[in-house]
Amino acid sequence: MKYFICISFIYFIALNALSSEVHWSVREEGSSIQGSFMSVEDGDYSDLTLNTFTDIAPMGFIRFGISEKEVMDFSADISLTVNFEVKEYNNLGVIVNTYLDDLTIEYYTTGGAPKSVNMDELRLANLHKFELTVQSITATEIVSGNSAPIPTQVYLEAGFNAERYYYLD
User: Fold this and answer.
1) Which of the four, 27, 57, 90, 169, has the lowest number of CB atoms within 10 Å?
2) 41: which residues sit within 8 A by CB, 6+ positions away?
3) How confident is the prediction for the chain on average, in pLDDT?
4) What Å distances lie between residue 90 and 38, 87, 93, 104, 130, CA to CA?
């Protein structure tokens, strides 16, 4: 029994030594989001067809959010929407899908208001490469409906992450 536990422990350590959490992302903030282009590619994209590793839950993502800071550069309750085009690539580098999408967040500065939605996310399962082009970003004061400037605390992040296990030679 001792040998079984010892061998199991060694196997578990070796398995964890050959795995890693991989993450790649790009980010734009504030007014630089407007018209931005982001290209996201798995760092091992060129090796996808070589079968040198196995991925668990590979996921591309696009996040639109607002970072909370002590000093915010706006005082009204605000709704923000970003519209963008996504180009999805297969594992051979061929565009397989192009579509328009949007993400929306609402941030309330007043204490008695509904709960804020500080981040919205689009998840792209099993997608190792994609491109994103921002068509527009708008900010609107929730109470008045008036247009507002884009706060500097707003961000748009696109990336890829997966748990990856590499094969031994």
Assistant:
1) 169
2) 24, 128, 129, 160
3) 84
4) 17, 10, 6, 27, 9
